[in-house]
Specification:
Blueprint: H1 3-17, H2 23-34, H3 39-46, H4 50-71, H5 73-84, H6 90-101
Helix pairs in contact: 1-4, 2-4, 3-4
């Protein structure tokens, strides 16, 4: 998987499963992937080793990937969105899409 697709997938994982992460895990992931900070920068900010940050990020992402492989929420959402494109009633489509993003 190329870097852009990996980042997109991680973003989808976070969108769907962030509530399963601790605040610290989520913070590390956001800083590393979305704020583009290095492991060294993150480790200095939290006063922990670079390896601890790396391990936490990798473990968190791998756990989210395992969960998604079991639940398939991302795949199912993409399938639903593709089906919405086939519905001619645009008002209905907008209502359906709105439910996709409600928490």
């Amino acid at each position: 998987m190329n870097k852009e697709k990996e980042l997109s997938y991680i973003s989808e994982l976070i969108d769907n499963y962030s509530s399963l992460l601790t605040e610290k895990q989520l913070t590390y992931i956001e800083m590393y992937y979305f704020e583009d900070l290095s492991l060294v920068e993150i480790s200095e900010e939290f006063n922990v080793s670079k390896n601890a940050i790396y391990d936490s990020i990798q473990k968190s992402i791998n756990n989210l990937k395992e969960i998604d492989q079991k639940l398939n929420l991302i795949k199912r959402k993409k399938q639903r969105l593709a089906l919405y494109e086939k519905i001619s009633d645009k008002k209905l489509v907008e209502q359906l899409k709105k439910t996709e993003y409600e928490k």
